[in-house]
Structure formats: structure tokens, C-alpha cells
Amino acid sequence: MTAIDTPITEDHSAEHDVPAKLYGLIGEFDNVTDIIAAANTAREAGYKKMDVHSPFPIHGIDDAIGIKQTILPWIVLFMGLSGMTTGLLLTTYTMADWLPQPGFVPENFEGYTFLISGKPLVSLAAFIPVIFELTIMFSAYTAVFAMFLLNKLPLLSNPLLKSERFRRATDDRFFLAIDARDGSFDAHKTADLLRNMHGCLAVELIDDD
Amino acid sequence: MAAIHPGTQIPSVETDNTLDDPCRRAPLVTGGLDFTGVTDAVAKSAISRPTLLWWVLFAITGPMALGFFTMIGYLFVTGTGIWGNNQPVAWGFPIVNFVFWVGIGHAGTLISAILFLFRQNWRTSINRFAEAMTIFAVVCAGIFPGIHVGRPWLAYWLFPFPNQMAMWPQFRSPLLWDVFAVGTYASVSLLFWYTGMVPDIATLRDKAQSRIGQIFYGFLSLGWTGSARHWHRFERAYILLAALCTPLVLSVHSVVSFDFAVAQMPGWHTTVFPPYFVAGAIYGGFAMVLTLAIPCRVWLGLEHIITMRHIINCAKVMLGTGMIVCYAYSLEFFTAWYSGHHFEQFVFRNRPLGNHYLGFWMMVFCNCVGPQVLWIKKVRENVWGIMWAAMCVNIGMWFERYVIVTTSLSRDFLPGSWAQFVPTWVDVVMFTLSFGLFGSLFLLFLKLLPTIAMAEVKTVMPAAHAHGHGHDDGDADHGQDPQPHVEGA
Fold it and tell me: Which of B172, B258, B486 sits opposite A123 (nearest CB)?
């Protein structure tokens, strides 16, 4: 446990020990109260490129590290409307004989005029289930795939995942990660800040190779 | 609080959380489990070797599943004549089984989506389970209409796609609606299930000891790190999915009921069918949830997470939806009488007294009589009592669909076309073996994947909420803090 008392300034003096490519620093906490307080402290200290890693979503963390509302719902709304349009066109265009058939539309898309018991070819009421299901299908697929893409996932290799300590981020520990690309980042000063936070159990330097 | 460190969890060690005290919320996780306790309890079965009991059960369900596919092969090379279906009962077992299985799936979505929107926090312990059940039930459900089409190699004609015949499906047909409804339902449920599971698979990745396990879970977890920014979008996506799945699940069984209700057949052509089918689906689904949860919570040692209170809540939902179903049964009889419609009245006289009276009375006993024991608190608090009710419903809901399909088709408008429906051995065996497929998939799920939504369970534990301590509250416990230490990477 020698590392406990070793100040980071000695461990990684700026000249030789700090790896050339840094990912950032992580501070470990064991409860929600401390991690929120830590995130607030870091934000007040001027850090912007930081993140909290936790085993479950924490109430109030968005404000603490300044997360803006995601645009995901708008994307989902847009794709839901696209799904509705697709359903409407699919059912109507393929059935109706009175819609324009421009040259670029393949012939097999043209009105099939499926006449059943003399019912109108475009029977909107009967098309509603198809339109509805396509609306839901487009929106739900978008909600999932857009969420993962906005999160830049899948990202199977991540410097954080190399840290043995960080494995508990999916179990019972909470990590405040400060990105080395942040303007205010300084391996020693930032480490000091993290270490002096209430409830900080450990600070670890993550290199990016 | 002075003596308690802000990080200290004040665990609830009580094991009985079934009492209703309006002054406080009953704990959802008992037995003094903390975050790690939850992780370990759930991850244990996934990262350790399968138990003997697991192998024994899999040795039963695995061959059954293989047998199911063998029977499908037999059907393909022989033709649908090996079933009891014929004119006029052209639907027979395959459609009965389809409705039965797809109905079971509904409880999973109800728990994961509708109870989520209603902020029913107790759902977190059972939703993963129930969603898995949904997926596997829908897998079984999808097979039956697929092999029922007669020329299954042309089943792809069900989908709308531009083809050389310039032919399109009939968008006004409830059977085509079914393709869209069940297709959407199956794929969206799968996505919902998988999305919710990603953070928990990441937990398994970090807990796994073996290299293969780390790679397997690492791949499936997509590199999830529990980032707050990710959680923010994740929660947004999750609530959107829940909001989308809620109308979806209600639409699916409504569309299934349209298969019947849009037809002119007496006994089918009623407007009560969509709500009646949805209630029946949830009824049957909760029975299956209980059938699976009651043994599994003991077997996997999850009694502190799936507590007795969860089981009782499910039993209450089952009892409630059961009352809707029984009301719908009586309403059907009333409507038949009130309609003054000769054929309608005949069908409803024929159900209790006619050629399929046994099925009808099985349905009434299993759905309307047997589960009523749950009104008694003592029975509701006893797993055997709940199991009895759930088993009744499992059987009764199958008979409900059997009664709907066979009584109307075998006694339609023209007495000249009446015929008795008699299932063949293939019908019975195929239905039985479909449970093997369901069971195998469920056992694989229990072994390989996180059976409980760990991340969600952790959010409903008291320790998941900040206590309002600032970072600089220099009270007495400060000195107990472990020394921060620094380590190079």
C-alpha cells in the first residue's frame, strides 16, 4: 500500500513519469452523496470534460456535471413520423390506381388494385394497423440505435476498461473521470483536487495507448 | 446520523415485506443486501458453472425442443393433413397455440413498459425475467402460424416487398395486420430487453473470471462504462421505449383478436374482443410469470430481490385481470341474448352444452373458479396457493382459445357444414414439445444472462439516493474516511 502515501507529484513528475498520451484521471467514491458533491466541486473548479461512471443512473448527476438534454426524443419523433409516412405510402400507393406513377418508380410498385368485396381500394381505416405498427417500429428502433450511436457505442476497447479498479463501476463504486483533453487538466493539480474530495477512496491515472 | 458515515448503507434486514404499513414504503430489497450483494446474488448463476439441477432440466427441455423441430420437419414433408384441422375447423391447434403463446408474452411487456410508466418500482425485480419470457413465448407463438400457412416455404409472401409478380399483400386483412403487429412486437420487445440488459451485461463482463466469459459479455455489453452521459440518454431511450411499447402491446393482442372479430363467424364477431383479449393475455402472462418466478427465486437464491411482496403483487394483478376476463365471458352471453341474433344465441347455447362443452367448463373452472382462492389473504401469502391459481390460469387460458376457435368454427351458419374437431396425436405432441423450446431458451437465459435488472434494482434501494450531505460537511465521521491514495496506471 505504498501508493497511498505517495503524492502524485512524486509518482509522476512532469518530466518523465506522466505517460505521453493521457486519457485522464479517475477518482473512486463509494456512495452517491460523495460522487455528486465531487462532480459539483470539479465543475466549480472549471472542469468541463468530465464524466461520472456509476452502476446505475444517479438522480441529480446531470446538473452536477452539466449534461444538456439529449436530442434523442426529437430524432425518435422524426423517425416515428417517417414510419407513419412509410406506412401510409406503402398501403395507399401500392393499392391505389389513381396516384401518379412517375417513371422512376418501378412497375411493381404501381397500384395493385386489390379489390375485395367492392370495398374502396384505399380503405384508410383498414390500413391503420399497418401504419400504426410501422410508426412504432421506426420509433422504437430509432430510440435504441440512436441512443447507442449518440453514446458512441459500441466501443469495445476503452482505456478505462483496462483499470482493474474501474471494474467496480458496474458493481458498487462511483468514479469521477476528468478527461486529459480538458483545458484545466493538469495531472498533478487535478489529482490533488480529486484526492482532497470528501469520500475519495483512490485516484488513478489512466493512460491512453 | 452523526455516527453514520455518509456512505454507510442502512440496510433493511427484515425479510418479511408483505405487511402494508401506510406510514412507510415496504423495502423492495430485503435481507440487508447492499449494491455488491445484489450484484453477487444475480451474477452468481451467470458466471459460475451450471448446477446439476440445471443440467437435469436442460436434459429434459433440450430434447423436447429438438423433438419440436423434428415434428416441424415431419409436418413439412407430410403436409398439414397430419393435424386435426380440416374444414370447417381450419384453424385448430396451431392458431390456438399461437394465441396462447403470444398472450403469455403480454405480461412481460406490461411489467416492463406499463408498470414502468406508472412508476411501479417493484417491477424492477421481475421485469428482466418477464421480458425474457415474452421473447421466448413470442418465438413459440411465431412458429405456429408460420407452419400453419400450408406452404411454409412461401411464408415470406406475407411481407410486403416488390417482387417479379408485381403482387402486394392484402393490407385490409387482419392476418396481414398480425404479421405487422407480431413482427413489430417481437423485434421491439427484443430490443427493449437487450437495451435494458446492456448495463447488466457490463456488470457480468467485469465480474467474469474466465477469458471466454469476458469476451462474450464484453462483446454483448458494447463497451458500456456506466457514464453519466450514457445513462442520461439511456434513461431517455428507455422511457421512450416504454411509452412506445405500451400502445404496442395493447395493439398486438387487439390485432390478434381482430383475426376473430373481423370475421363474420357467430361468437367471434363482437366488439368486446380487443379489450377482452388484452385482459386475457395479461391474465395468462402473469400466471406464467408466477409459474416461473416462484421456483426460480428459490433455485437461484434470489428471495431477497424477488421478495414475497413481488409475488403477491403479481398474484393481485392476476386476480384483477382474471375478474375482467370473467366479466367478459358473462358479457358475451349477455350480448348474445340481447342481440336477438339467432346464430349468435345458438353458439352461446352450444358452448356450455354442445359438442365442446368439456373445453368450456374447463375454461370456466380454471379461469373463473380456481384462482378465486387468491381473495383469501392466507392463500395469497402461500406460494403453493399462488402456484395453484397460476396453474389453473395457465390451463384455463389455453382452453379459452380452444373454445373460441373450435366452438364457432365447428358449428357455423350451415348445419350441413358442421363437423366435429378432433385433434390428432401430432397436434398434442407439437404443443407439448413447444414447451421444450420455451424451457430451453429460458434455461439458457437463466444460465447466461443477468436474470435480474441489477442496475434498476440498485436505483430503488435507499442507498441510491443522495442524503443531502455536502462534500465539506466536516462532521465527526470525517476521520473514518479511508485515506485517498494515488496510483499510476
Answer: B172
Q: Are A137 and A105 within one domain?
A: yes
**Tally of domains in chain B:** 1
The single-letter DSSP state of residue B113 is: I
Q: Give the residue among B235, B268, B243, B264 at the shortest CA–CA distance from B118.
A: B243
Report yes or no: B171 at the A interface, CB cutoff 8 Å. Answer: yes
Least confident of B200-209, B424-433, B460-469: B460-469
- Please report the number of interchain residue pairs, chain A to chain B, with beta-carbon separation below 8 angstroms: 293
To test the contact with chain B by mutation, choose from A54, A56, A165 the residue with the greatest count of B C-beta atoms within 10 A, namely A56
Q: Given an 8 Å threshold on Cβ–Cβ distance, is A136 in contact with B244?
A: yes
In this complex, the residue of A11, A91, A206 whose CB is nearest that of residue B486 is A11
Residues of A in contact with B224 (CB under 8 A): 153, 170
Question: Which residue, of A150, A177, A199, is where some domain finishes?
Answer: A150
Check CB contact of B488 with chain A, cutoff 8 Å.
yes
pLDDT in tens, B320-340: 999 999 999 999 999 999 999
Residue B477 falls inside a structural domain: no
Q: Residue B406: name the closest of B454, B474, B359 by CA.
A: B359
pLDDT tens-digit map of B49-64: 888 999 999 999 999 9
d(CA B108, CA B125) in angstroms, rounded, equals: 12
Query: Looking at the predicted structure, is the pLDDT value of residue B161 above 60?
Result: yes
Which residue is listed with cell 430489497?
A: B29
B471 Cβ under 8 Å from any chain A Cβ: yes
Asked if B177 has any chain A CB less than 8 Å from its own CB, the reply is yes
Provide the b/e sequence for B243-261 (b: ≥16 CB within 10 Å): bbbbebbbbbbbbbbbbbb
pLDDT on residue B5 = 54
Half-sphere exposure of A9 (CA within 13 A, CB side): 3
The chain A residue lying nearest B39, using CA atoms, is A171
Mean pLDDT of chain B: 86
Contact between A172 and B470 using a beta-carbon 8 Å cutoff: no
Q: Which residues of B touch A53 (CB under 8 A)?
A: 225-228
CA–CA gap between residue A6 and residue B199 (Å, rounded) = 34
Domain count, chain A: 2
Residues of chain A with pLDDT under 70: 1-20, 209
pLDDT above 70 covers what percent of chain B? 92
| Domain of A90, in residue numbers | 72-150
The per-residue pLDDT for range B352-401, each reduced to its tens digit, is 998 889 999 999 999 999 999 999 999 999 999 999 999 999 999 999 99
If asked whether residues A90 and A134 sit together in one domain, one would say: yes
